[in-house]
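Supplementary Methods, section 5.1.

A reviewer requested that the exact input to the structure prediction be made available. We therefore reproduce it here, unchanged from the version used in the analyses.
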Amino acid sequence: MMQSTFIVAAVWLAGLGLRTFSSVLLRKTGALLYLAATYLAGYYVAGRSHGAGMAAAGAWFLLPWVEILLHVRPLRLPAEQVLDRRHPPSRDDFPQLETLTGEAEEMEFERCGDVGRENDGGKQFIRLFWRQRDRMQLAVCCHEQRGMALVHVSCTTRFSDGRQMISSDFPFSSAMKPAPGAEIRQVAEAETIEALVRAHEEWVAGEGAGATGAEELDPEMLMERVSGELSVQVQHNVAAGILLSTGDGRVRYSWRGCLYLWVQYLKDLVRMA
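The structure derived from this sequence is encoded cell-by-cell as follows.
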C-alpha cells in the first residue's frame, strides 16, 4: 500500500513540477501526469482495476456537469437583454476600474458611460468607451456571480454590412454562440489594454478591414446598440437550440445547450492545460 501511495505521489509531484515551467509542451505534459496520477489512484484503491482507474481519470471531464446541473440548468435569463445606467462599483468591489479607465484614456478612448444588468443572481457592470479616429468601441466589464468576480476587456469594430470583429481578453470560451456576422478572437495573453488594442488593430488591418470601412456611430447611442446586439445573440441561440423560451419573456439552457457548455469547458481544459 505504501509503495502505491509513493508512486501516485511521485507522478502527481512530477506533474506539479512540470506545470511551473513556461514551456507549453512541458505544462501540457504536467497536466497529463495529473490525469495519470488520478488514474493510478483509482487503479490502486480499487484493487488494481483498470476500469476504476479510467473512471477516476474521466471524473475530471465529467466534473463540470455538477455546475451545469446545479447552477446553469435552473438559470432563467431575460430574452431581451436591456442595459441601464449604473453607478460604478465601489473600489472594494472593482479595484481595477480606475486603473483600466486611465489606460483606456491614454489610448485616446473617450468614456461614454457606465451601464449594467442583473440576471438571476448575477450582475454585470460595463464601462463603455469610444475612439472616433478608428471608430472602435472599448468595454471594461466586471461579471459577478455567487460572490466571485471576473474582469475582462473587449475591443469591437463594427462594419456597415453587419459584421463585427471583437477582440477580448476573456480567458474562457463563450457560454453562447456568437450572433451571425460577429467574429470573436480571444487574446488571453494581453496583460494591458494597450496590448489588447494593438492586437485588435493588427487583426483588423490583417483582414483588410481598416478604419475607413468601420461603421460610424453616435457614442451617445452605444448603450442601446450593445443592448440590441446582446438581445440578437440570445435570439440566435434560441434559434440554434442552445436556449429555450420559457414563455414568460425569459430563456433557459436546453439539454443541447448544457452539452454545448460542457464541450466549451473541454476546449478550455485542453487549451489552458
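The longest strand covers residues 148-158. These observations are discussed further in the main text.
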